[in-house]
Known about the structure:
Elements: H1 2-11, H2 14-17, E1 22-27, H3 31-40, E2 49-54, H4 62-70, E3 75-80, H5 91-108, E4 116-120, H6 126-143, H7 148-154
Helix pairs in contact: 3-6
The structure holds FE2/S2 (inorganic) cluster.
Amino acid sequence: MAEAHAVEQHAAPAAERWEPRIVAFLCYWCSYTGADNAGTARLKYPPNADIIRVMCSGRIDPELITLAFSRGADGVMVCGCHIGDCHYISGNHKTMARMPLIKRTLVDLGIEPDRFVHEWVSAAEGEKFARVVRDVTEQVRRLGPLDWPGRLQARGVGRGMGHTAWGEQP
Ligand code: FES
C-alpha cells in the first residue's frame, strides 16, 4: 500500500509538484533585521524565499537580478530601508531610481514584470516582511514556472543570424 502511494506521488504531474523559487535580496541594516524579526516573532510565511543579504539595497546591480532569473529563480524581490533610513545615506535613492527601469527591462527580456517586487522593509517590520513574502509567492505561483533559459531557446535566441532575438524570421 505504501509502495502504491509512493508510485502515485512519483507520477504526480510536474506542475503539481512545482513550488515558486524566490530570490530575496535584503539589505543588512533594515530588511534583513526585519526578516529576523519575523522569525523571532514566529510569524508564518512560506519557505519559498532564498535570502541573500547585501549591505545596502543600492548595492543590487540589475545584473544580479537577471542572473537570479537565469539561474532558475521564478521571482525576485529586493527589500531595503525606507527612504531617509539608509545607512549609506543615499543608497536606497539609487535603488528607487533603478527599480522601475528593471521592470521595463524585464519586459524586453521576455519576463513578466510581476515576477519582480521591490519593497521597503524596516528592522521593526517583521509582519510586513512576512506579508511581502506571502504576496510575492502567491503572485509568482499564479504566473507559473519561469524557465527563462527555456523561453529564450524557444524564441530562437542563440540560433544565429536567421532569427531576431525573439525567434521571429526577419
Ligand atoms: S542600508 Fe538599507 S537600503 Fe541602504
